[in-house]
Write a structure and sequence with these properties.
By secondary structure, this protein is α+β, with helices and mostly antiparallel strands. The chain has one domain: Gcn5-related N-acetyltransferase (GNAT) (Aminopeptidase, 3-Layer(aba) Sandwich). About 25% of the residues lie in helices and about 35% in strands. Strands 1-2-3-4-5-6-8-7 form an eight-stranded mixed sheet, sandwiched between helices. The two termini are about 30 Å apart. It binds coenzyme A (COA).
Length: about 190
């Protein structure tokens, strides 16, 4: 799916651009994956698991697939000429679950606390809500990710269930995963 580009204002007063990726972002997106994986334990991969995950050509294929999909959207935040954050929205397609949309997001650490995460989330929520059959938006966070939890709660997400021991870190620490959901509230005419 493609969306219109949108300028956003950061808490620093600077600006950034929310836009779909293009093939020329492939290397930047691969770098972003590795960087964000090394900045927190709350994402699925360790940095070395991002190496050789996708080739440059493979990443271009993914970008084109998502951009031309009717049910998937990738939005990146470009700040200072680099990728500051990426978020994804996906719509379920099966009859029994197509009332659910899913969101995932990660912002590069040096851009945290600038309002990028929340503005990207708001953009995805509004796109999800524009699809009439969507009644609920879902996402997950890992135990201890207080920043993400606070952001999601401030946007109306609430914890629905816990998956015990979803992550096991290199030092053996086991972490639960929490699922969250946010109902879509539509104004009645
Ligand atoms: C979670 C994350 C996306 C937030 O992005 P961000 O750009 O820093 O977010 P924002 O600046 O828009 O802040 C969003 C909200 O986070 C919360 N927040 C910000 N700083 C916080 C802090 N120090 N402690 C707790 N919550 C905090 C607040 O609710 C804030 O909303 P507010 O500004 O209206 O008060 C970012 O920290 C990140 O990418 N972390 C690593 C990857 C990750 O955890 N992804 C989510 C996986 S579930």
């Amino acid at each position: 799916m493609l969306t219109e580009e949108k300028n956003i204002v950061l808490k620093s007063g600077g600006t950034a651009l929310l836009r779909n990726p293009s093939e020329s972002d492939a290397q930047g997106l691969l770098d972003y994956l590795r960087i964000t994986a090394g900045e927190t334990d709350f994402l699925l991969r360790y940095p070395e698991e991002c190496d050789n995950l996708y080739s440059l050509e493979g990443e271009k294929v993914i970008i084109n697939r998502i951009n031309s999909s009717e049910n998937e959207l990738m939005l990146l935040c470009e700040a200072g000429g680099e990728i500051a954050g990426v978020c994804n929205l996906s719509f379920n397609t099966r009859i029994k679950t197509r009332h659910i949309a899913r969101i995932a997001i990660a912002v590069v650490k040096k851009y945290w606390r600038q309002g990028i995460g929340k503005q990207m989330m708001n953009e995805l929520i509004s796109i999800a809500e524009s699809r009439e059959e969507v009644l609920q938006i879902e996402l997950e966070f890992i135990e201890g990710n207080h920043r993400a939890r606070a952001m999601y709660e401030s946007l109306g997400f609430r914890i629905t269930c816990v998956r015990p021991n979803a992550f096991r870190l290199k030092d053996g620490t086991l972490l639960n995963e929490y699922a969250m959901a946010r109902p879509v509230i539509r104004k009645q005419n």
